[in-house]
Specification:
This protein is an alpha/beta fold. It contains eleven helices and 13 strands. Helix 1 links the parallel strand 3 and strand 4. The relative contact order is 0.14.
Length: 299
């Protein structure tokens, strides 16, 4: 049986490949290019394979009835539509991000929330497109991403199996990756349902399955790797106490370093499933076994 694998940015994501680690900056930059660059540098220091942002056209993504709803922000009290505009990076900022990532040798891409944002991201030749869980039922947007010819990654939070099946059917003709997720920020451990990784792997055998986590702590992400996630995505921040809706469900840079280091240790510990006697065990056989085997270990 052909293994599920997708080529993204010069490397393979799939069974038997190193876990692809995505550090999601998302909107944790709070509209600051300098903060975004610091987060990119933290991801590079930690050994992440890619960073991910979010891109919206506020006028398309914010319901009209919410435009003038006022809210408190780091820049004072303002309407929700003005806040969304203030949070968005434009061409100059993303061009700077593109240069910064290329100089540091890390891939970057974004979750696009509307057609205009997909076209915008195409200017930067991204290695793939990402559809957020909120977009899973927007088949027109998924097809827009698919029409670029690039690999498509879809998160599956807030979705039923039927909705996931319909989304996959809408874009199955092409390289596709699925991320198990629960869209609660932060997510309680009891709602993570990591065994869904097995369910998705069994149900969608042709597509690599990964994990997008929104919990506090690192252990569930390590467990997801042990359960076979081929890629993992975690939000990152410089400080979980910073202003912003995603900060509390994010991993600080020190935690990201530990997360990735231990993912690599887990990978090294997997082995191939073939029982053998290792060279380091031979002295213990001589020292501890009273009855020698009739089937001596191969040297």
């Amino acid at each position: 049986m052909t293994k599920a694998a997708v080529h993204v940015g010069g490397r393979w994501i799939g069974e038997g490949e190193p876990v692809f680690v995505i550090a999601e900056i998302g909107i944790n930059h709070n509209g600051s290019l300098e903060l975004a660059k610091k987060l990119i540098d933290g991801a590079v220091l930690s050994g992440a394979d890619a960073v991910k942002f979010q891109k919206r056209t506020p006028e398309e993504c914010v319901p009209r009835e919410q435009w003038q709803v006022e809210r408190d922000t780091p820049w004072g009290r303002m309407s929700y539509i003005d806040y969304r505009r203030r949070m968005e990076f434009g061409e100059a900022e993303f061009a700077a991000i593109d240069r910064h990532c290329r100089e540091r040798g890390i891939l970057w891409f974004a979750s696009s929330w509307d057609d205009e944002s997909v076209d915008f991201m195409e200017r930067f030749d991204p290695p793939c497109h990402k559809a957020a869980s909120a977009s899973l039922t927007d088949h027109d947007l998924l097809r827009k991403m698919r029409s670029t010819g690039r690999p498509l990654m879809i998160s599956t939070g807030m979705s039923t199996m039927q909705e996931i099946e319909m989304a996959v059917s809408a874009v199955a003709e092409g390289p596709l990756l699925l991320a198990h997720a629960t869209s609660t920020y932060p997510c309680p451990l009891s709602d993570l349902n990591l065994r869904m990784l097995h369910t998705l792997k069994q149900h969608f055998r042709e597509h690599p399955v990964g994990y997008s986590g929104h919990e506090t702590g690192l252990a569930p992400t390590w467990a997801a790797v042990a359960l076979g996630a081929t890629f993992v995505e975690r939000h990152i921040t410089l400080d979980r106490a910073m202003w912003g809706s995603d900060q509390a469900a994010s991993v600080e840079i020190g935690g990201l370093m530990r997360l990735i280091s231990n993912i690599r240790d887990i990978e090294r510990s997997f082995g191939d499933g073939v029982k053998r006697v290792y060279a380091g065990e031979l002295p213990q056989i001589e020292k501890l076994r009273r009855v020698k085997s009739r089937f001596p270990a191969a040297s």
